[in-house]
Amino acid sequence: MRGMMTRYLPLASVIIPLICILASMAYSPWFNIFGNALSDLGHAVKSSVAPLFNIGLVFGGLSAYTTAIVSQRIDKHYNMALMYTGVSLILVGVFDEVYGLLHFIVSVLFFIGIALFLLLANLKEKMKIVKLYSAMALVVIIMVWAIHFTYRVPRGAAIPEITSVALFAPVYLYIYW
Predict the structure, then answer these.
(1) pLDDT tens column, 20-46
(2) Sequence-separated (6 or more) residues with CB below 8 Å from residue 51
(3) What is the pLDDT at residue 2?
(4) Structural domain boundaries in the chain
(5) Most buried one in 11, 82, 107, 152, CB count within 10 A?
(6) What are phi and psi of 127, to 5 degrees?
(7) Positions of the chain with pLDDT lower than 70, given as ranges
(8) Residue 157 and residue 144: Cα distance in Å, rounded?
(9) How far is CA 77 from the centre of its chain?
(10) How far apart are CA 37 and CA 6, in angstroms?
(11) What angle separates helix 158-176 from helix 76-94, to the nearest 10 degrees?
(12) Interatomic CA distance for residues 81 and 67, integer angstroms
């Protein structure tokens, strides 16, 4: 049973938040992927889907953290980066947009965790395709965030957020699944 749990935990850490985010978007006709941040869905005062969205983030972060704890065959640097990223995702769900600056800080820490993980993959992986993908993903993520913060394009952060997670997930699942 433990082996099966360990095997599917990384997948659950991606699928659980994804399902909750997609469901939250589906039940929020006001949400605009170009004009909003994903965290707008988790605003405890302004969003009726906030509990679903935030619980998805917390369970996703908890699953990622647990994956790092139980994955003894994985390099300890990956596990440390994943624990950091998992805890920061939990904090994004706990300290939603109602918390203002605190929410922004924990969100930035989460995306730094993603970047750190991709950097580690670029430095540590033996397969050239994984190294190349990790490097390219990291460059794209840095570019989309730089464009967003410098030019406010797109106006909302959802596109850079989705891009970051979408480029991170294949490397994460390759290493842990």
Answers:
(1) 999 999 999 999 999 999 999 999 999
(2) none
(3) 59
(4) 2-176
(5) 82
(6) -70, 125
(7) 1-2, 5
(8) 10
(9) 18
(10) 32
(11) 140
(12) 12
